[in-house]
Amino acid sequence: MTDKIKEFIVEAREFHTDSKEQLEAFRIKFLGSKGLLKEFFAEFKNVPNEMKKEFGQVINELKNTAEEKVKSIHEMLESKEESKGGYGDLSRPGEPMVIGSRHPISLVKNQIIDIFSTIGFNVSEGPEIEDDWHNFTALNLPEYHPARDMQDTFFIQTNPDVLLRTHTSSVQVRYMENNKPPIRTISPGRVFRNEAVSSRSHCIFHQVEGLYIDKDVSFADLKQTLQYFTKEMFGKSKIRLRPSYFPFTEPSAEVDIYWGLKTETDYRITKGTGWLEIMGCGMVDPNVLRNCGINPDENTGFAFGMGIERIAMLLYQIGDIRMFYENDVRFLEQFKSSI
Ligand code: DAH
Description:
Number of domains: 2
CATH class of the largest domain: Alpha Beta
Structural class: alpha+beta
Number of helices: 12
Number of strands: 9
CATH superfamily of the largest domain: Bira Bifunctional Protein, Domain 2
Bound molecules: 3,4-dihydroxyphenylalanine
Low-confidence stretches: none
Helix content: 40-55%
Oligomer: single chain
Shape: elongated
């Protein structure tokens, strides 16, 4: 019996074919459910005990030889088919494609750009590493001006002239230095402040700055523009302008939007007033125009600045600003359906 099996081992070892059908016939003969191996394994119980060991070894060898033969010929035939340029079954389902999502900050930024470009604003950018002139001095914040403390600044090394911009108002200055009125521009960008990180504030965040300079630009134009913006952005156009102070605008105001008091969340975020502060704005101070090479006797203008995170938090009801920077896919995936 073992000799017979040994003959089959030789047969299996020497087997070769180029045809799938013959390979299948080989497989059925040796490994099929009614094949030789089944037969020999069934025989095992009739083998005298002293021969069981040897018998077991040869049938195992036959099994391994046959299995390896089938595998290697199968692989050989497959690779031949591929190199012939065959694509296999073209009707098979494709690999599922993982589609990413846009970051909510980008979504809101793009929405703001769309809204302002409709009324003729272009988009401008400036560097994140700034000098003192563009971030402070030109904006009517000379050295030792107390209002510099309103924004805790990251300085680069020990050189007080090189810093990370604390606001996108620096781009206003650069834009005015390089362009003549009429100017209508918005400047989205990342800004940095040396502040403790909490659920409400972060040391890195984003702003959009707006600037409009022309002949006879008035405060009424500012209000109208902001009203148009809040209507488009939030579907709400009831706003109020509260007198405030910024060194680069005179007069200055803080813009509140009437959010309403319909839900409990409305109560919480508006502290029961229904009003929410969303940006700062004002008429560009004549000193700033002069610093940037624009004649304040011929031109006037308005400017505004808002935080993108704050707007995204309101729109998407996000309770913690840190979510934007953690790159947790469970958070980011929720924005898949937004454009
Ligand atoms: N730069 C101000 C800030 O970061 C925001 C701001 C207020 C910008 C009034 C303006 C403005 O252009 O007119 O807090």
